[in-house]
Write the structure tokens for this entry.
Amino acid sequence: MIIRDETPEDTATVRQVVAAAFGRVAEADLVEALRDSGDAVMSLVAGDEGQIVGHILFSRLQAPERCLGLAPVAVAPSRQTQGIGSDLIREGLARAKRDDWQAVFVVGEPGYYGRFGFSTAAADKFETAYPKPYVLALDFVPGALRDRTGALLYAPAFLALE
Ligand SMILES: CC(C)(COP(=O)(O)OP(=O)(O)OC[C@H]1O[C@@H](n2cnc3c(N)ncnc32)[C@H](O)[C@@H]1OP(=O)(O)O)[C@@H](O)C(=O)NCCC(=O)NCCS
């Protein structure tokens, strides 16, 4: 299995994988909207024997500055719980850190994202319409978020997602 940057040839397959993972097209539409708007910063695929079996996207937040939002992450239904989602998340986080992003936010299950270092505590001071128990952050520079507050604002394309 390899993790690599998505290429233009991958987009149709990525759409299929994302829609299959979520059981609806809303997140696949989100991926396309984020690409089109230029807010997608990193879009990675997991490939196995030439097949794309997973995808992850990181987008630039409107606020706080120099931070990314992780969403969506999707693994083909027949390939879930084999570590592919974890590999995509770990590789994406390593690249984000390398590229000097200060922190990554995610809205999701604390039990899952906690294993990668995300915590609700790191995100707690930021105002958001998302339910707080599911809003997590991971700062690469320890304390990078400690003295910051204000709104947590995802890219505009997220407004179309319920
Ligand atoms: C969530 C998802 C990306 C995880 O990828 P994966 O390759 O299946 O997961 P991994 O193999 O890396 O990790 C498996 C572990 O995560 C847990 N897990 C998977 N999805 C989970 C979820 N939605 N909530 C909580 N735990 C979850 C599994 O129970 C398993 O736990 P264990 O290691 O303690 O046994 C994948 O299951 C998926 O595509 N789901 C549908 C789309 C989705 O919900 N995306 C996330 C929201 S953006």
Observations:
- Residues 21-22, 71-75, 80-86, 108-109, 111-112 surround coenzyme A (CB under 6 Å).
- The chain is about 30% helix and 30% strand.
- The mean pLDDT is 96.
